[in-house]
Amino acid sequence: MDDIEIEIYASKNHSEKTNGYRHMVIEARLIEILGKDFKNEIIALKKRGLKTEPAFAKQLGLKGNPYESLLELEEYYDDDLKNLK
Fold first, then answer.
1. CA 15 → CA 19, 28, 39, 48, 85, distances in Å?
2. pLDDT tens digits for 12-44?
3. 4 found inside a domain
4. How many CB atoms lie within 10 A of CB 76?
5. Which domain holds residue 70?
6. Neighbours of 19 (CB within 10 A)
7. Is residue 62 part of a domain?
8. Going by C-beta distance under 8 Å and a sequence separation of 6 or more, which residues neighbour residue 52?
């Protein structure tokens, strides 16, 4: 069986308010909006060793800290997200 890396994080805060959850929501939204090719590009970058958030930031051309940059996209309208790529 392949080794699988698992990250466990615990907090007193509600899950929906944690950055990890917020990243997951915006990443799912981006994949839905930008489609299968975008998703496959993210998968390819992850297979090459990039973590999820840096892979998204690279594909979208986001500058600065990829974790913070992704959170900034939460407030974007779908049409604005489509124009990122």
1. 9, 16, 25, 29, 29
2. 888 888 888 999 999 999 999 999 999 999 999
3. no
4. 16
5. 16-82
6. 15
7. yes
8. 23, 27, 42, 46
